[in-house]
Amino acid sequence: MISPELLRRYSFFGKLAEADLYEIAMIADEFSADAGVTLFQEHQPAEALYLLLEGSIDLYYTSEEEYHPKIRKEFLVGEVNPGEIFSISSMLDPFILNACARTAKPSRYVKIDAVSLRKMSEENHKMGCIIMHQIAKALMERLAYTRVQLAAAWA
Q1: What pLDDT band is residue 152 in, cutting at 50, 70 and 90?
Q2: Which of 39, 68, 76, 85 is deepest in the core (most CB within 10 A)?
Q3: What's this model's pTM, rounded to 2 decimal places?
Q4: Residues 30, 108: contact at Cβ < 8 Å?
C-alpha cells in the first residue's frame, strides 16, 4: 500500500475523488530498480499499471524474422518520464503487453494491481470513465512519439 497523497501529486490521478485515490492506493506498491532492469516483456499478460516517480524507462518492441527466429532486433518505441504511466495494455483488452520496459537509469515507480483496478473501474463507473480518459490521453501521446520515431527511421 502507498499513500493516497502520493497519487494526488500526479495529473493522471488528479480528477479522481479522495475515496477513489484511497482505494487505488490500497492496491499499489512502490518499488525501485537500478538502470538496465527489465520490468516486463512484451507478449506477457499485463497485470499491473505503472506510474514512474523518478528516473527513466525505455519501451522497446522486438522484431523477429519469421524464417530466422534467432534474428531479433529491438526498436525503441517510447520513453517514460517521471509522472507518466506505462503498461497501458493492462487496462485494455486483451490485457497483453505490447512492449518491453527497461529502466534507462535508476528509477522509482508505483505498481498498481491492474486486475483490481479494472474491477474497481467496472463497479465505479465515474472512476472508470476518468481512468479510461486518462489512459486514452496517454495512449495518444505514446502514438505521437512512435510516429516521430518511425518518421526518423525512414529518413
Answers
A1: confident
A2: 85
A3: 0.91
A4: yes
Q: Is the dihedral of CA 86, 91, 92, 96 positive or negative?
A: positive
CA distance 13 to 17: 9
CB atoms within 10 A of CB 122: 10
C-alpha cell at 59: 519501451
For the chain, give the number of residues: 155
- What's at 9, amino acid-wise? R
Q: Are 85 and 151 in contact (CB under 8 A)?
A: no
Q: Where are the domains of the chain?
A: 4-154
- Check if the beta carbon of residue 24 is closer than 8 Å to that of residue 42: no
CB-based contacts of 137: which residues, under 8 Å, 6+ apart? none
Contact of 138 with 49, CB cutoff 8 Å: no
pLDDT in tens, 78-124: 899 999 999 999 999 999 999 999 999 999 999 999 999 999 999 99
Q: Could you read off the pLDDT of 37-68 as tens digits, one per residue?
A: 999 999 999 999 999 999 999 999 888 766 66
